[in-house]
Design goal:
Length: 559
């Protein structure tokens, strides 16, 4: 073990690096072998490459969806937010608790409709539901753009590990190690498709469970127990920030951040299964019963998330100091957990922990890039560029698109410096929330008019981006896109400030979604008053009832 004087990241940590490389090579081999796992005669079909043949069973789906939803942000960003802001960081826990009851029935319905009609993406569903290629295009673009910062978040987690081991800012400078890791990821994803992250997820989740269970028992015992950890954390969070003059945070919520906590939790819960990669895991399962069992079992990951969040307080109590980013001169809070592991664990176990974080970044990054590639292929390439594309051409296009998305995400992090990497996920959430009316609500009703949905999307997306643009961050001097929380008093509606002077924070994504829904309803009422055609014959198959699902599924032998 090291002392605080032996700063992590100041030189190569050979024991940790060796174990990290061995485990990384193991999952690389699994990634390439996955092409032969449960494979059809050929992967030259989007159903096979992008959805694993739609035949994953209960255990595979559990690890795939769990590996997809509980990512590097779980290991890095949530504890970093707790370390920097205190109780606010625990918003991630209630949102994963309320998430599954909210999405249980919509996920089943989306699977049934998509299976019976051959849909691969949520934009496919919107295209079939409203007969509107324009609305489907907006949903596809939103999904791709919102996924990019989420993939970048995985890279931030991987880079934090590399930096701690001295591979970025120490023995080897620059982003070269990160680029090499993603080239390898890109190659085996290109070859094996969704089967690669599905197989690797078994290793990833096994490592994560071992590391966290050891951490939550070993570290508190070493540092004087949880009572001491909470006391020290409360004292440190109450100290004023030298740049802002205000306390960094609190171990309990305050009047300023309670509304932010609520809207973050609810907004994040509504957003998570709107992401194309979340639906990809659902659509890859072989039946409704598989999804039902998984929605009941996946909350087990929420317990893990709560334990992980507590590591932010453990880091405070242990005196961890984040590694300074040489390029910006700012402390990189994303390195808090890696540095904690580096200082407190034996080198061999720190290497295992770093491998868990690194692999925990690669699995979701692969699924996200596949989901984004599916959107590009089905809803942009085939819809607008090559309508007569063969299944083989679709698969080829998706493979190439997945490469572009991965390296686009690498470029993304080269030009940003988020104080808390979780802001990347929350900014993406503001965008993806604007697809809720078209995707989730429209699963149950086609009353909303397609032009109302388009107008709502434009208003919600535009206002959401404007609010994000106007959020500064005094801690690091950023004037724009400085975070994902806005004082309610800054809310402006055509120059009118209805909550002027109120300092309570709120999540902009929630505000933008409300505006989206209001505009969609108003335009829908107007369109229906003038009997504007809604794109499809609404007298036929309007509501996707369960008995219609069963009939369709029996016809294809899939129920």
């Amino acid at each position: 073990m090291k002392t605080l004087a032996a700063a992590p990241g100041s030189g190569l940590q050979w024991t940790e690096l060796s174990i990290f490389v061995v485990l990384f090579l193991l999952v690389t081999v699994l990634g390439f072998l996955a092409a032969r796992w449960k494979a059809a005669e050929s992967l030259d079909h989007l159903d096979e490459w992008g959805l694993g043949g739609r035949k994953f069973g209960g255990w595979i789906t559990w690890f795939l969806v769990g590996g997809d939803l509980y990512t590097a942000y779980t290991f890095v960003a949530v504890p970093a937010l707790v370390f920097g802001a205190g109780a606010l960081g625990f918003y991630a826990l209630p949102y994963t608790v309320i998430l599954y009851p909210i999405v249980f029935l919509p996920a089943l319905r989306m699977w049934s409709v998509s299976r019976s009609r051959g849909y691969v993406t949520p934009a496919d569903f919107v295209r079939g539901r409203f007969g509107s290629p324009t609305l489907a295009l907006l949903i596809a673009i939103t999904g791709i753009v919102a996924t990019m910062p989420y993939i970048a978040l995985q890279l931030v987690g991987l880079e934090a590990v590399l930096r701690t081991m001295g591979l970025n800012g120490g023995g080897i400078t620059g982003h070269l190690p990160l680029l090499i890791a993603f080239i390898i990821l890109a190659l085996y994803t290109y070859q094996s498709g969704l089967r690669a992250p599905a197989l690797i997820a078994f290793v990833k989740d096994g490592l994560i469970y071992v590391v966290i269970l050891v951490a939550v028992f070993y570290l508190p015992a070493k540092l004087g127990g949880w009572s001491h950890i909470f006391d020290v954390s409360a004292q440190k969070l109450a100290q004023p920030n030298p740049k802002t003059g205000k306390p960094a945070g609190s171990i309990v919520l305050t009047g300023t951040n309670q509304l932010q906590y609520i809207t973050l939790a609810l907004g994040s819960a509504l957003a998570l299964f709107l992401y194309p990669h979340s639906l990809t895991g659902v659509l890859a399962s072989r039946g409704r019963n598989v999804i039902k069992r998984n929605m009941m079992a996946l909350p087990a990951y929420s317990f893990l998330l709560g334990l992980l969040a507590l590591l932010g307080y453990v880091a405070l109590a242990s005196g961890v100091k984040p590694i300074t980013n040489a390029a910006t001169g700012n402390a990189d809070s994303n390195t808090v957990v890696p540095v904690l592991f580096d200082l407190q664990f034996p080198s061999w176990f720190a290497g295992i922990a770093f491998a868990a974080i690194g692999i925990g970044a690669l699995v979701p990054a692969a699924i996200m890039s596949i989901a984004a590639a599916n959107l590009w292929t089905r809803n942009i390439y085939k819809e607008y560029l090559k309508r007569d594309a063969t299944p083989k051409q679709e698969a080829k296009q998706a493979k190439l698109a997945s490469l572009v998305v991965k390296f686009g995400a690498v470029a993304f992090i080269l030009f940003i410096d988020p104080q808390f990497s979780i802001d990347l996920q929350l900014i993406g959430g503001v965008l993806i929330l604007q697809t809720l009316p078209s995707v989730a609500i429209s699963l149950y009703t086609r009353w909303l008019h397609r032009w109302g949905l388009v107008a709502g999307w434009i208003v919600g997306m535009g206002w959401g981006l404007i609010m994000l643009y106007n959020i500064p961050n005094p801690s690091n001097g950023k004037a724009h896109f400085g975070g994902s929380a806005m004082p309610l008093g800054n809310l402006s509606i055509f120059g009118w400030h209805p909550f002027s002077g109120v300092t309570t924070q709120i999540y902009p994504g929630f505000v933008a979604l409300v505006a989206n829904l209001v505009v969609a309803v108003i335009v829908t009422v107007i369109a229906r008053s003038f009997k504007v055609f809604n794109g499809v014959d609404e007298t036929e198959d309007t509501d996707y009832h369960a008995d219609e699902h069963d009939k369709d599924l029996r016809a294809i032998g899939a129920h």
